């Protein structure tokens, strides 16, 4: 049985609740839901959707790096958005971020997200 390794990224602000940025086990890294929060803890919830989406994906990158992996090793991504009308814009940003890599993905509409964010992303990657 593999040990579970819990990590927080030094590139991100400390988690705002009782969780770790990443949990690693069995050669997989599980990335907690990332919100549009900067390294210094600024919440970008008043910023346009595109700015929030880019920050969220940058935070996912930081978590992946802390786990010793990268976006080209993503196997599954779950996206939560408060307005499905923003979906085409997110998909464009996401496609640019990932390039040719196309992991499994789900998109769910949510009535609210923490701090009033418009987008949140959680992910699973091979280490």
TrEMBL record:
Pfam families membership: Ribonuc_L-PSP (PF01042)
GO cellular component terms, semicolon-separated: cytosol
MF-aspect GO terms: deaminase activity
Protein's name in the database: Reactive intermediate/imine deaminase
Organism: Amycolatopsis echigonensis
């Amino acid at each position: 049985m593999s040990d579970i390794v819990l990590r927080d990224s030094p590139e991100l602000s400390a988690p705002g609740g009782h969780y770790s940025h990443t949990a690693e086990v069995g050669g997989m890294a599980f990335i907690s839901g990332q919100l549009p929060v900067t390294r210094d803890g600024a919440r970008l919830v008043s910023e346009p959707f595109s700015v929030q989406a880019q920050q969220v994906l940058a935070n996912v990158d930081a978590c992946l790096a802390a786990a010793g992996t990268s976006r080209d090793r993503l196997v599954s991504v779950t996206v939560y958005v408060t307005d499905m009308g923003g979906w085409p814009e997110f998909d464009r940003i996401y496609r640019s971020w990932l390039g040719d890599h196309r992991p499994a993905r789900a998109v769910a509409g949510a009535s609210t997200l923490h701090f009033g964010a418009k987008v949140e992303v959680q992910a699973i990657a091979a280490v």
